[in-house]
Amino acid sequence: MEAIPVRVLNLNNKPRILDKGHVIATCEPVVDIIARPQEFSGAQHLPSTLENFQILNEKQRSAVRKLLNEFQNLFSTCDADVGHCNMAQHRINTGDHPPIKQYPRRLHLAKKEEAEHLIKEMVDNGIIEESSGPWASPIVLVKKKDGSTRFCVDYRRLNEITKKTVIPCHE
């Protein structure tokens, strides 16, 4: 077995002790590499994007083009491509306020079918997941200028009881 140096980040407030020789990870051979479909290639979007950089000269535009090509996998190219981070656990501080459970708003049959389709799409893409907690807020479907629908959640009641955290800027 080969030892590989690994950087470790403690995301907890409690100190952790890692004993020498303790296995913290294992490596496995790559079984399959799933490539992004060709139609989502970021390079296709570069020409129209670079037209917005008219204040740059050609040398600068070329440098930007090179950077965008090099890091194109970091940019979202569709609504389903939102990324995911599991390195931190999110918590909304509501103090000792009891959970707020708002019931769903009534929707027309066509809107209900559209909402169910959007929910299924988000579940399939790993954007949302089912839960059965005591908190609930209603959804709102908003028509965008292009005619498509934006799926929103009405968190106004939750926002009213959320304890605001002020983090000073360090300049």
From TrEMBL:
MF terms (GO), sorted A to Z: aspartic-type endopeptidase activity
Transmembrane spans: none
InterPro entries: DNA/RNA_pol_sf (IPR043502), RNA-dir_DNA_polymerase (IPR053134), Spumavirus_A9 (IPR001641)
Stored SUPFAM superfamilies: DNA/RNA polymerases
GO aspect biological process, one term: DNA biosynthetic process
Sequence ranges assigned to domain Peptidase A9 in this UniProt record: 50-103
A Pfam family annotated for this UniProt entry: Spuma_A9PTase
Protein name: Peptidase A9 domain-containing protein
Organism: Araneus ventricosus (Orbweaver spider)
